[in-house]
Each structure stands twice: as structure tokens, then as C-alpha cells.
Amino acid sequence: MDPHWPDVGARLNVRVGAGRPTLDDICVVRITESLRRLELEAKADPFGAARIAMRLTPWGESTLFTLDWHPLRGPGTRMHGLSVDYFVAVRNGMMLTKPARIAVRERAASV
Question: What is d(CA 83, CA 98) in angstroms, rounded to the nearest whole number?
Fold first, then answer.
């Protein structure tokens, strides 16, 4: 990731895959509100680009994390539907596993 992450314009390189088939993504920060909201444009050739929005919302004594995505351009806009949504949900789960583990570990260390 760029050293000025997560400022607007910062880039994050992401590789997603299992075994031989992999997909290299470049995510660019489009909107950021510290500790509340992060919106990325994910470029995933040959599929085009998508908007990925993440929000943290206070929820009682906890915090609710929401993730939303929507295709922006390219062939992916025509493939939006149940089967693609399932693939993207799996991909997003894989992508978020490592940051979630880091967040949990850092939270436990600070308590």
C-alpha cells in the first residue's frame, strides 16, 4: 500500500486467488472519513472496476461493520447478479480476513 494510506488517492495492491488462478487488483481510495467510512475503487482487469464502501457504525457497546459494492464500469457491470454476487462475497470475505485478525489482535492488546 502507499505510505499515505488511507488518504484519498492512495493505492492498495491486492492479490486474490486460490492456487494457480489469481486476480491482481488495485484499489484506490476515493472517500475517507477516519474511523467511520472508507470507499475504494477496485480495478480488476479484465472485469472492469467496482466501488467498495466500508462503514463502521456504533452499535450499542460494539461496532457494526458494513460492506457494500457495486460495479462501476467494464464487463463486470453486465455480470452483476446472483452468481457474481456470490463470488464477490467469497472474495471480499477472503480479502477482509487478514485485516479483521489484525484489528482483533490490536484491540485485545490495547485492553
Answer: 25
